[in-house]
Automatic annotation (TrEMBL):
<dbReference type="InterPro" id="IPR011032">
    <property type="entry name" value="GroES-like_sf"/>
</dbReference>
<comment type="similarity">
    <text>Belongs to the GroES chaperonin family.</text>
</comment>
<dbReference type="GO" id="GO:0044183">
    <property type="term" value="F:protein folding chaperone"/>
</dbReference>
<dbReference type="GO" id="GO:0046872">
    <property type="term" value="F:metal ion binding"/>
</dbReference>
<protein>
    <recommendedName>
        <fullName>Protein groES</fullName>
    </recommendedName>
</protein>
<dbReference type="Pfam" id="PF00166">
    <property type="entry name" value="Cpn10"/>
</dbReference>
<dbReference type="GO" id="GO:0005739">
    <property type="term" value="C:mitochondrion"/>
</dbReference>
<dbReference type="GO" id="GO:0051082">
    <property type="term" value="F:unfolded protein binding"/>
</dbReference>
<comment type="subunit">
    <text>Forms stable complexes with CPN60 in the presence of ATP.</text>
</comment>
<dbReference type="InterPro" id="IPR020818">
    <property type="entry name" value="Chaperonin_GroES"/>
</dbReference>
<dbReference type="InterPro" id="IPR037124">
    <property type="entry name" value="Chaperonin_GroES_sf"/>
</dbReference>
<keyword id="KW-0143">Chaperone</keyword>
<dbReference type="GO" id="GO:0051087">
    <property type="term" value="F:protein-folding chaperone binding"/>
</dbReference>
<dbReference type="GO" id="GO:0005524">
    <property type="term" value="F:ATP binding"/>
</dbReference>
<comment type="function">
    <text>Seems to function only as a co-chaperone, along with cpn60, and in certain cases is essential for the discharge of biologically active proteins from cpn60.</text>
</comment>
Length: 97
């Protein structure tokens, strides 16, 4: 049974990207070079409200590749996959090709 998690308020559900440990030519990469804390946004919450009651939307959207902090977030396991929940303000930025 597949579950769908919809984050509340300004939370963002992210699936971390695991970088390859080996190049296409078969060269093993050192552990430090393959460490880039990035992930793909799977789901976003509706946003939060300011003191006037106006909705402040989340700054990322589903499908964005984001740069994540080294520590933080809440680990969530759904359907044998590992996801992380972050607040919108904890995400460091978006990555573009």
């Amino acid at each position: 049974m597949a579950k769908r998690l919809i984050p509340s308020l300004n939370r963002v559900l992210v699936e971390k990207i695991v970088p390859p440990s080996k190049t296409s030519a078969g060269i093993l990469l050192p552990e430090k070079t393959s460490q880039l804390n990035s992930g793909k946004v799977v789901a976003v919450g509706p946003g939060t409200r300011d003191s006037s009651g106006n909705l402040i939307a989340v700054s990322v959207k589903e499908g964005d590749t984001v740069l994540l902090p080294e520590y933080g977030g809440t680990q969530v396991n759904l359907s044998d996959k590992e996801y992380h929940l972050y607040r919108d303000e904890d995400i460091l930025g978006t990555l573009h090709d």
